[in-house]
Structure of MFS transporter:
Amino acid sequence: MLLMFLARLPMTAMGVTMTLYVVNDLGRGYGAAGLIGAATTLGSAFGAPLVGRYVDRYGLRPVVAICGLASSAFWISAPHLPYQVLLAVALPAGVLSVPAGTLARLVLTALVPLEQRRAAYSLDTILVEASFMIGPSAGIMAITQLPAVYALTGIGVCFAISATLIYRMNPPIRAEADAEVVTGERPSVRSWLTGRLVMAMFISAGALFCLVGMELAALATLRASGDIAWSGLLITFMCVASVLGGAIHGAVRRSLSQGTLMVLLAVLTLPVGLIDHPWWLLAIVLFPSNVLCAPTLAASTETVSAAAPARVRGEAMGLLDAASRIGLAVGSPIIGFVIDHSSPGWGFAASALGALAIASVGLFWRRSRTPAPVPALTSS
């Protein structure tokens, strides 16, 4: 878990670092920087299921070696490339990014007994929150205090080190009990991608849509009220609330389902826009919804790991990663559009309603794919 935490740090730092590099060093606008970020995100979303499938087929080491080399090469060469070339290679670099999230879930599923996986997934989600507290701040410090070539190359070196450590450690990705299951022929996608799994993907996408929209609306609210200087403290407070929720979710013997947690997350986000100042009151009303952040993400992993067959668990976890990243990628521009054309308060409402709409699509899909029960025959 510590190894995967270290592997995630450069991933959480690369977005803001690349944005500041494109704006400050290449002299481009935030729109140009956003294109590179969008290309990388879409690439990782499309590539996650494919990379997970190759992990299922060939094991951890070959995939980590290829992805580690690709990620390191991209970031080490980035400060030496013109913008047009950088934009062109951003998509394939995203496809071949190190799948730290997928690998972390696979390793935990292999190493942790079934009855303790909720606690393990919750702890993993807590470490993800911790990486988002450290990574972006470290990236901002590096790109603003050091020459850009050092900052970007440093991210590439971090990818190389983490990939090398994962390769050498070679943690198991399947439990010993699954050894016989995975030797057979690979099942077709239609046989295991059930309505339950598809609904779990949509719920996960909806949760990330809500979370990224909530963060964007919170920052816009602080800016509108003149409290933008408190944004760092507010984001930290939101992360601490999520960590607390993850600890509670992992400690209880029985928790709420993924769908219930996501609905509660959205419902508690809906009225936040009624409060716009002062910043500390906004932090208080954001606390309940953020407590549900880590539990919802952990429950998503738990649902997918339980529903996916061991032979294709890597691909299923990759699909979960893809759904999460699509929710992030779609949420930012939609909520930004709502805020630009209304007010920050409506950004919270749009985040909640959008999340519920996305989850509803998953529910509709599951019901449409579930065969109707056949009535029992009665003797006359």
